[in-house]
Amino acid sequence: MREAGFDGTWRGVITCAPHAEDGGARGYTYGFPVRVKDGVLHAQRKAEDAPGSLRIDGPIQPDGSAELIAKGLTGHPDNAVEGSKGVGTRLDSRKCDFTFTRD
């Protein structure tokens, strides 16, 4: 069983700045529910493959570090969780910032 210290419901927020290299992609910010169970994070915004959907999954290590895989309109973020907060940044294409807070 994985580390359960971060288990529970959280609220995620992603903010992406406008990006001219993506064909003039507009910036956006939206929230989504997050669940951590047995130290594994899962987040889902809208139905999978729907326009504007986002799915994030991955284990959170006991020290709070995490390598999460995002599918949808985002890329691969570098993340960390500590106490009741977490932050992350998308590393490819345009910059997007994630935040997670425990409910």
Characterize the structure shown.
There is one protein chain. It is built from no helices and 9 strands. With 103 residues, it is mostly beta strands. About 6% of the residues have low confidence.
What's a concise summary of this model?
The protein is mainly β and 103 residues long. It contains no helices and 9 strands. It has strands at residues 8-16, 28-37, 40-45, 54-59, 65-67, 69-72, 77-82, 85-90, 96-102.
State the order of secondary-structure elements, H for helix, E for strand: EEEEEEEEE
- How many helix segments? 0
* Arithmetic mean of pLDDT: 79
Structural class of the helix and strand makeup?
A: mainly beta
Report the strand count.
9
Low-confidence stretches at least 5 residues in length (pLDDT < 50)? 74-79
Query: Per the principal axes of the C-alpha atoms, what is the gross shape?
Result: globular
Q: Helix share of residues?
A: under 10%
Largest sheet: 9 strands, antiparallel
Observed structural traits:
single chain, 103 residues, mainly beta, 9-stranded antiparallel sheet, 9 strands
